[in-house]
Amino acid sequence: MVQLSIQAINNQNLFSNHYLENLIQKNDEWRSNDHKAAFDEIKRIYEAEKLFLEDLNESQLEERFFRRIFKVLLPDFEVQAGTESQDFPDYAFFTDAVALNTAHSNKGNRSFYKNAFAIGEVKRWDANLDRFGKDKHNKNRNPSFQIWLYLHETEPKWGILSNGRLWRLYHQDKFMDSYYEVDLATILEEDDTDAFRYFYYFFRREAFLPSPRGEIFLEKVLKGSENYATEIGEDLKENVYRAMKIIAEGFFNHPYNRLDKHDEKARLEVQSTTMRLLYRFLFLLYAEGKGLLSGSA
Q1: What's the rounded Cα separation, in Å, for the pair 243 and 280?
Q2: Contact by Cβ (8 Å): 179, 12
Q3: What is the pLDDT of residue 291?
Q4: Which residue in 129, 157, 205, 287 is a FRET match for 272, CA 20 to 30 A apart?
Q5: 2 Cβ partners below 8 Å, 6+ apart?
Q6: Could you tell me if 100 and 76 are in contact, meaning their C-beta atoms sit under 8 angstroms apart?
Q7: Alpha-carbon gap, residue 153 to 155, rounded angstroms
Q8: Is the pLDDT of residue 263 over 60?
Q9: Strand order in the sheet with 158-162
């Protein structure tokens, strides 16, 4: 997959890279400077704790780091501890204090999340968020699978998974391996306020809720990405048809081939050869995009 040019952002098929790099600037959020105050506050939190982050256990990290950042981004949140018989997501995020207080009547069961707009799961600093092989579908060892399960066991469509350094967004309707990831620590270390936009505007409360115009930022980015992919798919089909037509005509028009376009056998042979050639071109382009060819990495 072609990666974004912004190194701190890792989009794994949740949104469109083209949309994130070239079209997102058209959103009202991108023309504001709301992110600057949040950057300064989160930077202060990070600087105060960064020498200790690797040695903190999960509970300590939650108290000294995560909850302080949540207060900046998602202020109306609650911790939901598991019971002896059930596991729950670590956090639920609510629209306001009224919604949060209403949820308390259901604390201890899954109805607690009914009016939440997102759930959250946090791990120790720099913990591995992905497991492969036999642990891929073990929720106790694979945080990605864990948040994916929680999204299908509770009402919210959006899930946040983080180990402090990396922050991910997951969507209920997408595959487990589809997510949007931001390396927050790198952005803070590099004082990159422009890249911080890709964290702040995607993880703050307003990203999940309708704007005064009735638009939900994350849903708009998701829909815009899907629309772009559809347009590209239609263009690709049209371009493949045109390419096949041009190549086939080339085979027939080259006198050395001695092919008669009115001969059924010749037409089938040219069609097969044209498809084979196009697939080889596509394979080469894919390999080049992945950096698999010598000198293309």
Answers
A1: 13
A2: yes
A3: 67
A4: 287
A5: 17, 289
A6: yes
A7: 7
A8: yes
A9: 9-12, 179-183, 166-171, 158-162, 118-122, 91-93, 77-79
Report pLDDT digits (tens) over 46-97. Answer: 999 999 999 999 999 999 999 999 999 999 999 876 655 678 899 999 999 9
Question: Which tokens hold the place of 171?
Answer: 């969507």
d(CA 110, CA 83) in angstroms, rounded, equals: 11
Q: Which two tokens stand for residue 28?
A: 């009202």
Instruction: Give me the amino acid identity at 191.
Output: D
Which two tokens mark 2? 């072609």
Contact 207, 218 (CB under 8 A): yes
